[in-house]
Amino acid sequence: MLHEENTLLMDKLKSECEKCSGLCCTALFFSKIDGFPKDKIAGIPCVNLLENYQCKIHSQLNQKKMKGCIGYDCFGAGQQVTQVVYKGKTWDAFPKQKSEIFDVFLKVYYLHQIRYFLIDSLLNISDVIIKEKIVKLLDENIEICDESPHRLMAFDVEEHRNKVNTVLKQVCALIQQMYNSENNHCPDDYFGKSFIKKNLSGFDLSSKLLIAADFTDCIFRGTIFLGADTRDANFNNADLSGAIFLTQGQINSSKGNSNTKIPSHLFYPPTWM
Ligand code: SF4
After folding, report:
1. Whose CA is nearest to atom 4 of ligand 1?
2. CA of 142 to the centre of ligand 1 (A)
3. In this predicted model, what pLDDT tens digit does every residue of 177-225 receive, in sequence order?
4. Which residues does ligand 1 sit against, CB inside 6 Å?
5. Which of 194, 190, 229 is nearest to 71 (CA)?
6. DSSP string, 142-189
7. 57 C-alpha to center of ligand 1: Å?
8. Digit-coded pLDDT (tens) for 45-104
9. CA 122 to chain centre
10. Which end of the chain is more exposed for a tag (fewer CB within 10 A), N or C?
11. Rounded to whole angstroms, how far apart are CA atoms 34 and 30?
12. Going by C-beta distance under 8 Å and a sequence separation of 6 or more, which residues neighbour residue 187?
């Protein structure tokens, strides 16, 4: 599979809210403490969701410190469910199918998230055997997300995720080898700590709490961000262009500026400009 094809596949995982029916603002539960407007149970629309599925306070999210809303990214699951799986049918127009639509949205969200890591793997490794395994899993993932709600609900996401996790572990080991990072000393504690001007290339930051850490002017080539919590981490002037498994949600939740370099498939959040 060519680099350009993978980039195109990645583009499909960019959320297009105008093609969705406010699924994330309705289907999910959220709480005020996590930076959402109010505590809300799953399946009820947010108080700020308008009839046209737009957010009443969209332009003020930053000013109102709605960090949960700013940080959330659906990996394009919203438009896939609304436009492809349900062919334009929306949860409010078909109340009897509402909970099924929300369940399908959650399932497609997990599948798109998994797909994101598969494509990012293809963009970053050259090992032919591992790439073949990834392409097979990618085909399975893409095929099921275009299926009917019934088939999607019957699909075993956990089994798919377990197969993907096995391959992702191999990808991480390869990346570590490429950056000879077994010799790198990777600290355990990042929470609120300062790493200004450090070269963190090849570090495995998977599942690390990077909350409020200062990474100003840092370099992150081949640094693995799988599941890292980047809330309020400061990436001003940092080079994240070679970061692995860094997601739009992680970028949205952190701080940066127009000098921060990011992977080409991600975009600069308005809060960074
Ligand atoms: S405030 Fe806006 S973006 Fe946040 S959940 Fe409500 S409608 Fe969605």
Report:
1. 69
2. 28
3. 988 765 567 788 999 999 999 999 999 999 999 999 999 999 999 999 9
4. 25, 36-37, 46, 48-49, 55, 57, 66, 69
5. 229
6. HHHHTS-HHHHHHS-HHHHHHHHHHHHHHHHHHHHHHTTGGGS---S-
7. 7
8. 999 999 999 999 999 999 999 999 999 999 999 999 999 999 999 999 999 999 999 999
9. 16
10. C
11. 7
12. 193
Place of tokens 């996401």: 157
Sign of CA dihedral 244, 266, 29, 109: negative
Block residue for tokens 């019934």: 150
Tokens for 189, please give them.
Answer: 């504690």
Q: Which residue has the tokens 């990996």?
A: 75
Distance 115 CA to ligand 1 centre (A): 25
How many angstroms separate the alpha carbon of residue 15 from the centre of ligand 1? 15
Q: How far apart are CA 266 and CA 260, in angstroms?
A: 12
